Amino acid sequence: MNYLALIFLFLTCIPVLQAQKLTLIRIEQADVLESVKKGGKDVRILRNNVIVEHQGTRMFCDSAYLYSVSNTLEAFGNVRILQGDSVTITGRKLDYDGNSKHAVITQNVVMNNGTTNLTSERLDYDMSSRVGSYTTGGVIHEGENVLTSKRGYYYAATRDIYFRGNVVLMNPEFNLKADTLRYNSPSHKAIFYGPTFIYSKKDTVYCETGYYNTSSGQALFGRKSYISSEGQRLYGDTLEYDRKNSFGKARSNVRIIDTAEKVTMNGNYGEFDEIKRIIDGRNSVDVWRKLVCTTSNRIRRHRPNHRWSNQVGERP
């Protein structure tokens, strides 16, 4: 029985022993190296042109405390982290745990991943998953886009950024405000997960789900969505919008309201061309004006001459 118990104990300890095979933080360079006691712990003090390495990630700083027993590092001054060829993080102070591979960078933090820069006063970064997060406010610069939020999560592998709380996306052509947003840098696509407004000189868009491509101007909006422009508002369960061509489509439960002319159009499909100033409603369309209802399969309206047409093919 004792022999079997020892075998069982040995087998159950194998995973624990394997988990304890940790890679220690390695010193690559330092002009000055001292070994001292700090708080009862053995500490190596590194000064001037300090470089340490851990599992392929290099960390640079002016000075550092290296705790070999706990495999942790405190770095100060001109901190820079290089992870492969893609991720660079800079700041003033670094606390790094070599066992969990978790880093906390504080004070004037900048994280760069190709064309994307993230700035914050504190960044938590997991070296294994390559995920960075902030909870004290952050700013993302990506091309012409500037995104700010209270909280955020940056996935370096996919270059996805999740924003939460007071999200603002500023672009030379529009401003976007949302509560929750996901932005993918390679595709330039912003995906909405809650009440969202998009403002431009020409129009205002509201939706609670959907996406917008900040490069192409193509968008798909859903859930309580509408497009408002110059006294007109287009509603639909689903809205497709091409901002560059100022053209929108609405599908299912479509309503177009012209507040200037006091006209309401209801149908199952609608189009709105801001350049040609044409409203086109199709599939069982009702138009209400001064308590008078006109019904047709298709009704078009050309705003400059206020002309309505309910004959398919007739041009305004």
Question: Helix and strand layout, with pairings?
Answer:
Blueprint: H1 2-19, E1 26-29, E2 32-38, E3 41-54, E4 57-67, E5 72-83, E6 87-97, E7 102-113, E8 116-126, E9 131-134, E10 138-142, E11 145-149, E12 151-155, E13 160-171, E14 174-184, E15 189-192, E16 196-199, E17 204-207, E18 209-213, E19 218-229, E20 232-242, E21 247-258, E22 263-273, E23 278-289, E24 292-302, E25 307-309
Antiparallel strand pairs: 1-3, 2-3, 3-4, 4-5, 5-6, 6-7, 7-8, 8-9, 8-10, 9-12, 10-11, 11-13, 12-13, 13-14, 14-15, 14-16, 15-18, 16-17, 17-19, 18-19, 19-20, 20-21, 21-22, 22-23, 23-24, 24-25
Throw out a few tags for this protein:
single chain, 316 residues, mainly beta, 25 strands, 67% strand, disordered N terminus, disordered C terminus
Concise account of the structure shown:
The protein has one helix at 2-19, and strands spanning 26-29, 32-38, 41-54, 57-67, 72-83, 87-97, 102-113, 116-126, 131-134, 138-142, 145-149, 151-155, 160-171, 174-184, 189-192, 196-199, 204-207, 209-213, 218-229, 232-242, 247-258, 263-273, 278-289, 292-302, 307-309. It is mainly beta.
Overview of the structural elements:
- This protein is mostly beta strands.
- The chain has a 25-stranded antiparallel beta sheet that branches.
- The N terminus and C terminus are likely disordered.
